[in-house]
Amino acid sequence: MDITSATDTAFGSFRTLWNWRFLTWALTVRDVKLRYKQTVLSFGIVILRPLLSAVIMAFVLGSVANLSTGEIPIFVFGFVGSIIWFYFNYALSNSAMSLLKESDTISKVHVPHFIPVLAGTFSTYVDFMVSFIVLVVYLLVSGFTPGWTIVLAPFIALATPLSVLAYSLFLAPLTGLFRDFRELTNLILQFLLFLTPVYYPFDKVPALFQPVLALNPALWVIELFRASVLGQMTCDPFWIWVSLGSTLVSCVIGIRFFRALDRVLIDFL
Fold this sequence. Notes:
Pfam families: ABC2_membrane. The chain crosses the membrane at residues 40-60, 72-92, 113-141, 147-172, 184-202, 238-258. Keywords: Cell inner membrane, Cell membrane, Membrane, Transmembrane, Transmembrane helix, Transport. This is Transport permease protein. The chain has one domain. Helix 4 (74-101) runs antiparallel to helix 10 and helix 9 (160-177) runs parallel beside helix 13. The chain has helices spanning 14-19, 21-36, 42-64, 74-101, 103-108, 114-119, 125-142, 153-157, 160-177, 181-195, 210-213, 219-230, 237-265. Helix content is 69%, strand content 0%. By secondary structure, it is an all-alpha fold.
């Protein structure tokens, strides 16, 4: 049977997704409330994660490996990168696990299965904003005055879910079918951390490997975010377009993949 907007439980039509926008919002708000409900250290942990990561990587790459980040102090460079990276990291983890987590809902209610996947990409934006505010305060206190483009940074970060979907459209249905993919997602994120210029400048990568790293859908968001905060990118704009193109192609293929697996997904959740 052909998949149409009437029988497509994965996405439906654009109108169907729009009609379910309130569920996307509700799932996002619920996840945020659960994260901070009855917690004392949540905001502290949100701040400490990127801060400590930047401190450790600044020591390892700066003091041990003697990596240079130009005029930008290596700690500031890493702190900016880690903030947007942790948003991407936890958004991908949530989105990849979303179908499994919402299995009771989607097995009982006729709702497009894409909705939980999409909602999973938004809930960690609150964490990002908390860290971003701390970053701005630190830059001002340390004497590193950012340019006016820093006001664009939160809006650039809103594009992160697109990069997340380039991965989660594949990982979410696979995790629903095979529980082992929960661990595979963590493994992928560990590799992506080193394949993404979070703590090192892209232009320090040997030219032979730059085309490969540019295919990473996370690259363009991180580079644009860092440029909006620090006023400079570490790669040629051409690689930004390559990364964005890779993201869009991955999403198109991911949609087809998601639809194909969705036909049998409900029997495994």
